[in-house]
Amino acid sequence: xxxSTILTRIDTDLDNALDRLMELLRIPSISTDPAYKxxxxxxxxxxxxxxxxxxxxxxxxxxxxHPMVVAHGGEGGTHxxxxxxxxxxxxxxxxxxxxxxxxPAIEQTDKGKVIRARGASDDKGQxxxxxxxxxxxxxxxxKLPCKITIxxxxxxxxxxxxxxxxxEANAKDLTADxxxxxxTDLFDANTPAITTMLRGLLGEEVVIxxxxxxxxxxxxxxxxxxxxxxxSNIIANLHDDTGRITVPDFYEGVPELSDELRSQWExxxxxxxxxxxxxxxxxxxxxxxxxxxxxxxxxxxAEVNGITGGYTGDGFKTVLPSVAKAKISFxxxxxxxxxxxxxxxxxxxxxxxxPDCSVEFHDHGAGPASVMATTNPAFAAAxxxxxxxxxxxxxxxxxxxxIPVAGYFKTILDMDSMLxxxxxxxxxxxxxxxxxxLRSFHKGIRSWARILDALGN
Length: 457
What we know:
four-stranded antiparallel beta sheet; about 450 residues
């Protein structure tokens, strides 16, 4: 059998593949709401039975929370671990949905046909593209193209509390040559992407206290220190005039972009003006001398996500506050050490405190960036396979966000990850009226078949 016959089977079996996806989408596996605990278990069991029907040795593994699905099949070639998640976000506000979020349907839009349902894009539609590719391969050849482990989580949308303990306890069972993660996007409708760089994240809350209580600004304004003014000065000092972050040693571990990767990104034709224009902006505000795409994918940031102090209700109150607070997040790249940056940031803040002020810090997570070793031959093979399926060549891209499981695969299982997904930016994941393009589902299945074929040879 040849790859072409497998792709033909995918084309002719698309309606059946959609029926299977619809069946999974009807299960309201909302992991964060205890009322849906049984539905999460039902989704895990559904996937186990479906994987068994293809020939996988599959089981639903218990955790203190929702089950993990682990399946093994195939032999030879590159051993891949495929990761996805079967849990979904809550559907609120329900009144903004155009239809029942767990009554999936194919809808015609001005951009083509879409699959409309909660979880259609994030992540049931995505994970089923991989399973359907395996199904087609077995149907045509009687076997899988290589050794495959499938790992499906049920708590991704509720903070993954069971993920790290489960991975640590089952490291031998999960370790492979490379991990495949499907929870990402196409670069655009015709350009597939392999995400090879994920930014890390450090969250800090700064609480500055001055006077022992709120004061009347007419009686105390002037001689009494104002924590909002102190905090504002610290925030203003966080960046210099070129947009660089001033925390000592902050840029340790930040790599420069390689010429090869820079050329790939330039070839994508990213439109800075359109990107900013979509949110009502006109002028890039980050590091001078860095493109918008480079700022998002390959440079670290420091941003104030919230600031409070004094009276913020309706009307006006002439108060001099006792306390001012700010929530600050750092996106990290390369080998930046989030714990060292936390220590340096806290000392940097303390060094700017005037007399009569004290500071408290509350941490909100600290995770390093993930940078994949694209010298692994699997990356080149997958990129070529994607290029054969889509109109434009596949690109190695970065991501401005963070996908913690990719970092865990590296730190716990010592595996690099290829993040390959077929979602679109307008899929409304986590929002009402979530959708997944029918084209993404179809070509996603074909793409995985091509990738598996390349990794099996």
